[in-house]
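Re: [ENG-882] Designed sequences occasionally contain unexpected residues at chain ends

Forwarding the minimal case from QA. Structure tokens:
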């Protein structure tokens, strides 16, 4: 009798220990799911839009946007000009710069400067340093980026592999590194400022543009290191990982009728206009260290995390190799 009693107590005890572990696990997963599916999107794409966020004008008079004359960069330039910042754009072609310059002056009445340089040339930073002299810079958007000409080529299929890789690394990686080296010191001294680095959802390793993808991985990693280094410096550092944004870059890389069907479907359902993307992304500054910029792309990244890399790789390689 005694023996039976002890045994059943032990049984109940071990049962309740398992029960507690189970309950903790279930609660933890539930919190995770609620956080991912409800709280984070609610906070970043609704609260951040309606509540007053970072007061950009108090950070400094100027925002510097690389690749600011077109696409996502132009969207950032417009969004920041709308909030009263003067804009310094750095892009390649005079005509595009001139067009966007006129537009910003006319619509927002802010001061605008532009510098025409080609980031595939690494000698341009002296010119940029010169142009930056005396400017009180509050915001730096490291946006300029380029690809290897197609988003459906494996490593060895890339046209003119060596030159094209060198250009991508110079435009995507060297430019951000140098721009930060030029501007971060004045921000740290003032103990305020915002730096945004534009990476890509593809930074996790997209086989259709391996070099581009890897360059964006560099952007995300360096950005993350600097974010952690300067956590308490007053300077806000954010990494943005967009999905599909309808810009020239997207068109030239994907839009020649060669996209696999699942990517076309992805485009039909998840693509966003550059200006809408940038205005949503600007609202998330100060709210998160890493952002997908807009609600649609946030959910694309959640799906991508639970999706199977192997399946995507296989589909893509099937298309590329046919
Ligand atoms: N579009 C997407 O779906 C997508 C997705 C994920 C990430 N991104 C990233 O978002 C960023 C912006 O892309 P986007 O789609 O907006 O590109 P975009 O429409 O092609 O615009 C690129 C901007 O950068 C400038 N630029 C390009 N190459 C340059 C060079 N060698 N030297 C100087 N300026 C140069 C362009 O100026 P000019 O017109 O004067 O050449 C233009 O102002 C990139 O970092 C890209 O990797 C884009
Ligand atoms: C797509 O077409 C454009 C314009 O004709 C061209 O510049 C670009 O290189 C093409 N891209 C690919 C991947 O073939
Ligand atoms: C991204 O952000 C930090 C912000 O300070 C910057 O210093 C860093 O150089 C940037 N990333 C890259 C790839 O340059
Ligand atoms: C995507 O949209 C285009 C234009 O609306 C349509 O022609 C095409 O069939 C759609 N593709 C897919 C895969 O849904």
């Amino acid at each position: 009798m005694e023996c039976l009693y002890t045994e059943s107590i032990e049984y109940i005890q071990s049962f309740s220990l398992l029960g507690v572990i189970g309950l903790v696990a279930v609660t933890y997963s539930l919190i995770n799911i609620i956080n991912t599916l409800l709280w984070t999107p609610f906070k970043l794409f609704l609260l951040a839009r309606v509540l007053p966020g970072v007061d950009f004008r108090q950070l400094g008079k100027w925002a510097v946007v690389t690749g600011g004359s077109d696409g996502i960069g132009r969207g950032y330039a417009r969004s920041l000009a709308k909030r009263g910042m003067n804009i310094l754009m750095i892009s390649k072609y005079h005509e595009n710069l001139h067009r966007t310059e006129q537009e910003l002056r006319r619509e927002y009445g802010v001061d605008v400067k532009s510098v025409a340089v080609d980031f595939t040339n690494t000698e341009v930073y002296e010119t940029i340093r010169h142009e930056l002299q005396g400017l009180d810079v509050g915001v730096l958007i490291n946006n300029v980026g380029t690809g290897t000409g197609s988003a459906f080529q494996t490593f060895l299929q890339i046209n003119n592999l060596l030159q094209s890789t060198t250009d991508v690394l110079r435009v995507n990686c060297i430019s951000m590194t140098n721009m930060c080296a030029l501007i971060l010191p004045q921000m740290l001294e003032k103990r305020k400022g915002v730096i945004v680095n534009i990476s890509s959802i593809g930074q996790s390793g997209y086989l259709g543009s391996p070099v581009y993808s890897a360059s964006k991985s560099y952007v995300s990693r360096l950005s993350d290191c600097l974010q952690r280094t300067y956590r308490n410096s007053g300077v806000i550092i954010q990494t943005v990982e967009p999905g599909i944004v309808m810009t020239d870059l997207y068109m030239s890389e994907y839009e020649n009728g060669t996209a696999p069907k699942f990517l076309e479907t992805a485009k039909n359902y998840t693509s966003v206009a550059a200006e809408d993307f940038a205005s949503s992304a600007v609202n998330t500054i100060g709210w998160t260290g890493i952002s997908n910029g807009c609600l649609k792309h946030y959910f694309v990244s959640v799906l991508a995390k639970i999706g199977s890399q192997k399946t995507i790789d296989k589909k893509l390689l099937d298309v590329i190799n046919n």
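QA comment: On inspection the terminal residues look reasonable. The beta strands are 62-66, 86-91, 112-116, 137-142, 193-198, 235-240, 245-246, 272-273, 290-291. Proposing we downgrade this to a documentation issue.
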